[in-house]
């Protein structure tokens, strides 16, 4: 066999092996139920993913933890992978066994472009399977104000309650997220809804002495004289916590 023929056969063999790997990867589940398509989505290998889809890879396959390829890509911020999966009709509302949807993962981790893709594909902005916090609560907790605004513009419930009956605005006031608090107020979040202990957004901001948030809430009409279950108002809490600047303002 001359060198030219050897090279030709080697190339053909290499292509054949790669093709076989792709074909097997489309059909076979590896450790923990992952397919090669799942792995490509998790790592962000867009070209490989597209080839897997072309070869018949099932985009809705779930691994042993219930995660789809779309959940993995959304969590890890792989914009092009998410786009490719959605174009292949991946369901944007399938949660993992722990209840996390692709939108929940994207919102929690600050992946705004992916949030846009998912909402355009009709992802439910208020999905809370298995008691997992809604995407807007996750985004607020982590200070993702632009995602909060985006979710609100797609009719997410800005007063949805999570742990301890806390709304996104309450969470923003607890965690000192002024941009999120402002975004929520602009989206018409209720200023006076209390949590399970009767604390309103204004009371929470006063407890911590977050004067910039206190002023914003008051300017938008927050009620100053609501009392929590311990019969304390925002002013009383500010005084108890020695937040003198906030106390003077109130």
TrEMBL record:
Pfam families: Ank_2. GO terms for biological process: protein K6-linked ubiquitination. InterPro entries: Ankyrin_rpt, Ankyrin_rpt-contain_sf. Keywords: ANK repeat, Membrane, Repeat, Transmembrane, Transmembrane helix. GO terms for molecular function: ubiquitin-protein transferase activity. ANK repeats lie at residues 65-97, 98-130, 197-229. The chain crosses the membrane at residues 6-30. It comes from the Eukaryota. This is Uncharacterized protein. It comes from Lotharella globosa. The lineage of its organism: Eukaryota, Sar, Rhizaria, Cercozoa, Chlorarachniophyceae.
